[in-house]
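> forwarded from #structure-qc
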């Protein structure tokens, strides 16, 4: 086993003996085997363990087992212990646990000088991942399975099956911890591991090898697709701090690449098909677990979902600036001249009543535009200004005495305009 282990590392240039590695060690068979293989091969490494406190005393015993092992061999031990009160009903436990551990690994690497995180994923894990991806309706990327190197994460056991790992531990009389949750069919991966894959292995005992051949056969296709996807993004994809825009001028290319682009924002295949069907329906909105997508005139716009927060803010007479939810500066002037600078409005201060209210605009809001006798819907003004749906969500209004006097950066109400007899001016500037 140890010779195959080192051959796999060397042939794939995964890491060297000069690099300080961080081993993710749960205490289970896979990570324990990796511990002894690294140690027996002369690699320098520390250990990171996460106690999720999900299995009561069993979780604490896992922690104690790993800590004792590290103490015995003089290995640096890093522990992250999660309080059991952290876990809430309805939470995606496995997904959240994954976020916790990889965030912790990054934290240790950044603070302690390790070069890579080493995990104990093996052939069976790869087979499970690919089959699960297929049932979700994956794209080509999902068929490629687990990568040997992914960012700073390295998987040096992808050459070996679980049975071989356990045989290696038994032959060396090495004990490991069993996670009782692995026998529960509550989790999807366990159902694949305990029920579905054993049935498939009855049809083909060499299932893992068959999956490996699938990945190998697709490798050149995947590489070609990856390069052409990069070309597509170079031409049609623009990423700014606040939003991503995808031009929709090339319908044929959208059909090929859109799923792989939007899967990064947690949109599924069904949603992508609906987006493609609705590509000419300006204003159509789609929502994933993390993002909102809007179809505009010539592009798709994607923005991160924002948590619901207080949307009304008081602006007092002595307020000079605010930075959230938008950046506004306020000045009182005794001599005012109308400025043509974008985002600047000059108001007759004696026509407003403090405190003002800054809030998000709502359907039904109205304002009296400069020079008009009647009012106009804010929604119509935003349409007239060709403000896309994603940007509309950020538009705020200023109210005085329950009446909208200004849409910062867009329009001033006729009711607060400066006139020849204005003596005190209030300057509002929207900074972008």
């Amino acid at each position: 086993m140890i010779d195959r282990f080192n051959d796999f590392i060397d042939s794939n240039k995964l890491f060297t003996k000069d690099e300080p590695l961080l081993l993710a060690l749960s205490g289970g068979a896979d990570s324990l085997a990796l511990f002894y293989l690294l140690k027996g091969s002369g690699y320098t490494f520390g250990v990171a363990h996460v106690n999720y406190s999900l299995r009561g005393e069993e979780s604490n015993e896992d922690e104690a087992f790993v800590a004792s092992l590290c103490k015995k061999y003089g290995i640096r031990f890093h522990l992250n212990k999660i309080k059991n009160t952290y876990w809430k009903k309805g939470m995606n436990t496995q997904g959240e646990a994954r976020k916790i551990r990889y965030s912790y690994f990054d934290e240790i690497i950044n603070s302690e000088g390790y070069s890579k995180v080493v995990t104990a994923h093996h052939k069976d894990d790869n087979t499970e991942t690919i089959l699960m991806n297929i049932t979700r309706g994956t794209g080509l990327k999902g068929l490629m399975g687990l990568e040997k190197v992914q960012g700073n994460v390295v998987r040096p056991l992808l050459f070996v099956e679980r049975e071989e790992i356990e045989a290696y531990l038994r032959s060396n009389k090495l004990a490991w911890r069993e996670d009782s949750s692995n026998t529960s069919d509550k989790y999807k991966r366990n159902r694949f591991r305990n029920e579905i894959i054993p049935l498939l292995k009855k049809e083909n005992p060499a299932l893992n090898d068959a999956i490996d051949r699938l990945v190998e056969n697709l490798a050149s296709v995947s590489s070609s697709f990856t390069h052409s996807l990069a070309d597509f993004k170079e031409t049609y994809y623009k990423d700014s701090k606040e939003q991503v825009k995808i031009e929709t001028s090339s319908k044929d290319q959208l059909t090929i690449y859109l799923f792989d682009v939007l899967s990064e924002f947690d949109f599924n295949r069904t949603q992508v098909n609906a987006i493609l069907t609705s590509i000419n329906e300006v204003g159509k909105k789609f929502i994933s677990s993390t993002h909102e997508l809007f179809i505009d005139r010539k592009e798709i716009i994607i923005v991160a979902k924002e948590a619901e927060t207080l949307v009304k803010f008081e602006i007092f007479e002595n307020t000079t600036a605010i930075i959230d939810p938008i950046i506004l500066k306020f000045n009182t002037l005794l001599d005012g001249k109308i400025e043509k600078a974008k985002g600047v409005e000059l108001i007759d201060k004696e026509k407003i009543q403090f405190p003002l209210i800054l809030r998000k605009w709502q359907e039904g809001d109205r304002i009296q535009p400069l020079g008009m006798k009647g009012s106009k819907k804010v929604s119509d003004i935003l349409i007239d200004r060709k403000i896309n749906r994603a940007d509309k969500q950020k538009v705020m209004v200023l109210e005085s005495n329950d009446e909208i006097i200004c849409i910062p950066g867009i329009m001033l109400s006729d009711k607060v305009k400066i006139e020849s007899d204005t003596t005190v001016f209030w300057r509002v500037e929207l900074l972008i």
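QC bot note: The longest helix spans residues 207-236. Residues 240-304 form one domain.
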